[in-house]
């Protein structure tokens, strides 16, 4: 008789299941107390920087391909600032990061952000370091590794037509960002990241890597 009562009490249709159990499990994992060592924070800085800059570079490449096909260099030139894309800015907010692209041969010197670490070359040095108790620094070179980029940054008369170069000079009279070849460094990504954002990124078991097939809205 006792067994019969127990069986009836445990009928599946009478069990109240916890709603959103998967989401709650994810949140629980993320809120677990974890000990974070200094080297862990440096690794998280590298992962966070790689994630943000890879996102920006992928969106830039896909956006420029689309805009060049629609309206050529005249149209694409307005989209060549991936750090201002909404998706990139949103990710920077999550990571508590400020992202800049720097170059010794800028297209528009007036809008060029100052180096976040002036002692470092923006062209050749990949660096992850801790600037202070609360601030981390990330830098990696920007290399011209896509044939598409030569249409605006290659050699004038060879990769860039005279008509397109006239458009570039009209928009950016002080332009110095031409004459590059494939495989050549053009500058660097530099990020300043807050410790709180780096620590949260490290402890997030559910963090997701950037996937190219996902195309978020840019603006």
UniProtKB/TrEMBL annotation:
It comes from the Bacteria. Pfam families: Tll0287-like (PF11845). Residues 98-192 form the Tll0287-like domain. This is Tll0287-like domain-containing protein. The lineage of its organism: Bacteria, Pseudomonadati, Bacteroidota, Cytophagia, Cytophagales.
């Amino acid at each position: 008789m006792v067994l019969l009562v127990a069986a009836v009490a445990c009928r599946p249709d009478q069990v109240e299941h916890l709603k959103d159990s998967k989401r709650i499990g994810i949140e629980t994992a993320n809120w677990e107390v974890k000990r974070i060592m200094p080297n862990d924070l440096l690794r998280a800085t590298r992962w966070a920087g790689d994630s943000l800059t890879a996102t920006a570079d992928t969106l830039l490449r896909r956006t420029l391909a689309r805009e060049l096909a629609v309206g050529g260099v005249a149209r694409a030139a307005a989209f060549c600032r991936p750090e201002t894309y909404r998706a990139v800015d949103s990710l920077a907010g999550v990571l508590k990061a400020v992202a800049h692209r720097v170059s010794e041969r800028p297209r528009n010197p007036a809008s060029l952000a100052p180096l976040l670490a002036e002692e470092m070359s923006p062209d050749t040095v990949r660096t992850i370091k801790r600037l202070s108790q609360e601030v981390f620094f990330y830098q990696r070179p920007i290399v011209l590794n896509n044939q598409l980029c030569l249409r605006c940054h290659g050699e004038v008369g060879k990769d860039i037509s005279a008509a397109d170069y006239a458009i570039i000079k009209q928009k950016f009279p002080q332009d110095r960002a031409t004459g590059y070849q494939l495989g050549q460094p053009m500058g660097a990504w530099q990020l300043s990241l807050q410790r709180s954002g780096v620590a949260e990124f490290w402890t997030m078991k559910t963090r997701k890597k950037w996937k190219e097939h996902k195309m978020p809205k840019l603006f």
